[in-house]
Amino acid sequence: MLTVSRAAHLIGVTRASLQKMISAGELSSFDGMVSSEDLTRLFPDIRLEESGAFERITKIREEAFGRRVRERILPNQEILAERLAAQSEELEDVRRHLAHYHDLIEALRERMALAANDSPQDALADLASFLDQGLASVLGSEEPADAVAVMDEVLRVVSAHVTVKPSGREFFVEGNESVLKAALRAGLAPSYGCGNGNCGLCKARVVSGKLHQVQQSDYLLSANERAQGYALLCSHTAVSDLVVEMLEAHSAADIPQQEIVARVKSATPLDGEVMMLHLQTPRSNRLRFLAGQSLTLSVTGSTATFRGDYAIASCPCDDRNLLFHIRRDDGDEFARRLFAGALKAQDAVSIFGPWGDFILDQDSRRPLLFIACDTGFAPMPSLIDNALAADEIGTMTMVWAATRPGGHYLANQCRAWADALDDFRYVPLTAADAAAAATAALQAVRQQPEDPAACDVYVAGGPSFTPAVVDGLRAAGVPEAQIHSVIY
User: Fold this and answer.
1) Pairing mode, if any, of strands 396-402 and 368-373?
2) In 10 A of CB 195, how many CB atoms?
3) pTM over cut 0.90
4) Which of 91, 233, 304, 308 has its CA 20 to 30 A from that of 107?
5) Longest dimension (CA), the chain
6) pLDDT 10s digits, 372-410
């Protein structure tokens, strides 16, 4: 039996897909577990060596513009040895139990033989014959090994499964990465600060499982904390499957305001009107934020300080590398200086925030509908990447309206999502202005297979676009609690 999370990871589908099969009665589930036999039956043509959650999004990584490629690596020799040792101990326990059961069966056979000699009875003889036939069948069986179960055991050496309490969220620790990094990569929002073992904000209680320290830490846990099983998630990786009690952010109010001096990594034109600004924070002072939030950027010139508010276009899983889509705007001095080439690599940019509650509803499993106009698209990659990382959402639809020729400045990213994911749709629209874009977007929404009232809807654009779309959604019966909007 496998957890739904591990089964999805192994087969290479989303947890939402397996949950849908369970709801439809196609896949049996017992206390959140599914059997390897049922998986083999439902996926008879699966090639396990070519499947898996990471391979599922390889195409996105290869084709998406500007996406940072995070390679999957094997654990180092020390961690690999520890995981193999732990698996060997588990195997030895199984062998020891099997030996005891074999001895018990043999003792039962001897007693039955003695009882049959002392007081022959047909029923006792039949039972002895049944036992002999059963043992012969088991010992002489040439039934092939359960391929799913075998591959699961192999993957346990490469990755460890983590269950979070009290939320019940699950994720996998790959290679040598820390538990904290794995949690962020999986779309969770754990409590942390520096990410370098200095602040202690990521300490959590390990209920079960074994850790291995992969990074030195200057933060000292008390003797009482160590006795209770506390550890710094940023400094340890998982040797075995874990159950961890940790704090998670569920709303914007749970994220503290931060002030960090970042450095310009690059400024890349996405087209003639939009620039992608890449900022990098210090290793010892990373930005904690939720997907969809925004920041205030500030640079100090020779005579004045210039500020601008922009959506974060990157995923919280990469908390050092922050991306922004900044449009040309002569009324925005920060943007004007950026397009004029005044910001060079390694220039200092102060960031303040994060702010805004344009974030994913982490407790919802409804389909997601994203509607954007022009650079209202900016927060969408962050939201979509976070939803993909969480691996619990079904259908996603991206409706993107542009009011100028070539305004879909990251169309290749959207096409990569649509090509790589069965349940992702990309709907590009063009319109003369924002008002016409709102009308076109609402019409496109009505043409989608999902009823918008059954979706969580995220709308972003200018003041002539966002309110009009929100009003149209309300008129279409979308509950207020399912509409999330922001004006840029």
Assistant:
1) parallel
2) 26
3) no
4) 91
5) 108
6) 999 999 999 999 999 888 876 678 999 999 999 989 999
